[in-house]
Amino acid sequence: MTKTRNTFPKDFLWGGAVAAHQIEGAYNVGGKGLSTADVMTAGDRTTPRQITKGIESGKYYPNHEAIDFYHRFKDDIKLFKELGLKAFRTSINWSRIFPNGDDAEPNEEGLAFYDELFDELLANGIEPVVTLSHFEIPYNLYTNYVGFKNKALIGFFERYAETVMQRYKDKVTYWMTFNEINNQMDTFDELHLWTNSAIIFEDGDNKEEVTIQASMNELIASARAVKIGKKINPAFQIGCMMAYVPVYPYSCNPHDLMAASKMMERRFFYSDIHVRGEVPSYALKMWEQKGFTIDYTEDDLAVLKEGTVDYIGFSYYMSNAVTTLSDKRGQAVRDHPEAMTLANPHLQANDWGWQIDPQGLRYTMNLVYQRYNKPLFIVENGMGAYDKIEEDGKIYDDYRVSYLEEHIEAMAQAVNVDGVDLMGYTPWGVIDIVSFGSGEMEKRYGFIYVDKDNQGNGTLQRRKKESFNWYKQVIEQNGLGN
Ligand code: BG6
User: Fold this and answer.
1) Cβ atoms within 10 A of the Cβ of 58, count?
2) Which CATH number characterizes residue 205's domain?
3) Residues near 179 by Cβ (< 8 Å), separated by ≥ 6?
4) Cα-to-centroid distance, 436 and ligand 1 (Å)
5) Which domain covers residue 276, as residue numbers?
6) Using a 6 Å cutoff on CB, does residue 316 contact ligand 1?
7) Does 3 map to a domain?
8) Could you tell me the distance, in angstroms and rounded to a whole number, from the CA of residue 439 to the centre of ligand 1?
């Protein structure tokens, strides 16, 4: 492989990423309303998290305290500064600003909290990168409005976006609208639908049609936020946030290739609209064939066109392989309408079955850049793992370093060999946080260890892992070094 390890653009945004509900805690402090993330219990590797009706006594909700970043952010930012972060990606918790989502006035205490947080970051030379909705919305917008199925949420989101963009116009330049908006279309599973759109299906719902309607409402809301943001401060850089999981044909059978391409289309649907501002023809055709009626107006279409994004933020963790070959049925990990997912025999997986594929990152960057010709920003990447504190008090997380090193190497190839325009890299969970998927604390991503277990026990004390020193050096030398 060509050695191009040490060359990233001069102002490259080396950073770290988290989300409000996975880190802040203080779920009922400072006038905050209940959010959809507050009614999710803890699960584990094999047990899914439950979504309860309100908060039920006797159940454990890991996001209620999370790692108490709300009260400890000043100390944590000191560590981020020591690490050398140039950017810190977090989200604003919508229910801190509008506790019920439909309130007439924003909650000043919530606004003041993010003022303090952004000021502290800036004072330490760290650029805030902000997601407006990272897998949560005010719970009231579910109970009284059934989530993003309802077009009323477009207006509520727009008002929320306008409020925070106006308030932080001189503090935040980099924004993203909806986190991993395209995660909901693959499987229609409860967790993803809940976290993306606050949808719980009702009897008689056509799941795909309902998901598409909610998605269109979010895409319109996103475009409205982009338009408003650009009016508030034309220097804003506003992106979308996609989960890209490249889908490979399991074999070179052309039917497998076609199946993989069709599955990719389901994910590209979202960025196609965010970036090009038009509903793609493959989607219109599919809706027609399936008899779906998706409700949007000519005005909505104009908004989509006017509210296109400046860059493509995305997460990358793994790849996927699919086949249509019926003799492989016994090996299927998951069934989709057109194909089955199989484990890729060329890849290893982490303890949660996520297949590790650095080349897939380079491939994805090429694919996306060629499709859109817009700057890319890798805003999540990393490997969840169990960490152990050794007798000398250290955490030797060389597995984490290997994972990240290989991905940064692939990233360098995409930039320097393939000519991809990449703005920055913010690996996921710079500090240990509550896992979104399982609600565990012990699925750790961070360079900074947090003393807390899956049941919520621990002192919350922070401790640098060995990977901390490694990442610090990567940032200092603007790459891996030759
Ligand atoms: C992404 C999300 O899907 O992956 C994060 O944007 C999430 O919120 C991350 O935490 C890792 O997933 P998990 O399930 O390991 O926490």
Assistant:
1) 4
2) 3.20.20.80
3) 19, 91, 131, 133, 134, 135, 241
4) 5
5) 13-476
6) no
7) no
8) 10
